[in-house]
Amino acid sequence: MSSNVSRRVVLRGTAAATAGVALLATGARAADHTGHTMDHTGHGGHGTGPMAFDEVYKGRRIVGKPATSGHEAHHGGFAVTIDGQELHVMQNADGTWISVINHYQVFDQPLALTRAGVDALRGATLVPIAMN
Amino acid sequence: MAVRKNQANLTATEKRNFVNALLELKRTGVYDGFVRTHNEFIMSDRDDSDRVGHRSPSFLPWHRRFLIQFEQELQKVDSSVTLPYWDWTADRTAGASIFGADFMGGNGRSRDAQVTTGPFAYSTGKWNINVSVDNRPFLQREIGASGTLPTRAQVDAVLAMPVYDTAPWNSASEGSFRNYLEGWRGAGRVHNSVHVWMGGQMATGVSPNDPVFWLHHAHIDKLWSDWQRMHPSSAYLPAAGTADVVDLNDTMRPWNNVTPAQMLNHSTYYTYA
């Protein structure tokens, strides 16, 4: 167990470094899309980009990082997993976030959104939904 | 003419007929097809790309068409059935009659949020959750654990908004009746907060797993109808030529043969009592 804990510590350091990269990447993307500027008035904190994370919450391994492949990458997005299973997340135009579990309630950051997903799961396992 | 009634005014027979028709659609698999369709739109409707069912002007006509199709399936089972609506500005506690064992059943139990009363309890063997985001096969609710139901005053404030929708035609639209009713903006976050208040599947992309979904959306549809009557000169917007969203005379997926213009008048399908 102790080696597991130390691995988490290391990963947390990596997550922080990744978050820094994500910040830079988000800034660059905003500059590239000048026609898509958003008004963040009244939504303090949304302009800083999503924070990457890798932690154990209520016994579940939750990881969030910029998407490099798959569906989310097409939307300049962010990918989240709970115990290795994808949690479908989406960023709203105002910078807030929703997931397929918390679809009608917005969160400022993917981390809080993912923790809420873990809460709602109550130990259940995410399963991919068959799309037609 | 089909008349959609306030669920609080249904007779015992009307409640039983509605529940039995739901159970029959569930048994045949027709019901789960609606859950799947809804979730496909939930997952693909985005603020920055093509969007039809949610966070866009066609949120209201899309759900009107979706409910009509579902109601027609119910009527194939029992021609006397119409969709009731749930006015959550009036019936707003977990103890309200809508959650009685003779109708929608009650709240989930504390241990695992499982609904254990009424016709959709897992123990009946008639309401397994097949289209799901996780591996739990039972209906869940956590009524009132998150969020609050919108009040009548909050709904009235939204109904007073004169403009149907505004650019950028998504969840960030300001001064938009549609977006404030959908609940991405405005006090009470009207439509969205009811999903959140119910908890369980209602809070997720597979929300139609909970039959309360239909009663909630029938009420949202009625509020749109009320708004149309209050603002007879306010048109559906946008009219034409708008990227990524459904203009007045564009067709809507997944049907591809119906436009918002064709959904503006529901009186050939049903009226509200």
Walk me through the structure:
Chain A has 132 residues and is α+β, with helices and mostly antiparallel strands. Chain A has a single domain (3-121), classed as protein ne1242 fold (2-Layer Sandwich). Helix content of chain A is 36%, strand content 20%. Chain A has three helices and six strands. Chain A has helices at 2-32, 70-73, 110-121; strands at 53-57, 60-66, 78-82, 85-87, 89-91, 97-99. In chain A, the strands form two sheets. In chain A, strands 1-2-3-4 form a four-stranded antiparallel β-sheet. Chain A has a two-stranded antiparallel ribbon with strand order 5-6. The longest helix of chain A has 31 residues, at 2-32. Mean pLDDT of chain A is 71; it is low at 1-47. Chain B has 273 residues and is mainly α. Helix content of chain B is 36%, strand content 2%. Chain B is built from eight helices and two strands, in the order E-H-H-H-H-H-H-H-H-E. Chain B has helices at 12-28, 30-44, 59-77, 152-159, 177-182, 190-198, 212-230, 260-263, and strands at residues 2-4, 270-272. A two-stranded parallel ribbon of chain B has the order 1-2. In chain B, helix 3 (59-77) crosses helix 7 (212-230). The radius of gyration of chain B is 18 Å and the shape is globular. Chain B starts with a strand and ends with a strand. In chain B, 49% of the residues are buried. The mean pLDDT of chain B is 97. The interface between A and B is medium-sized, with 27 and 37 residues.
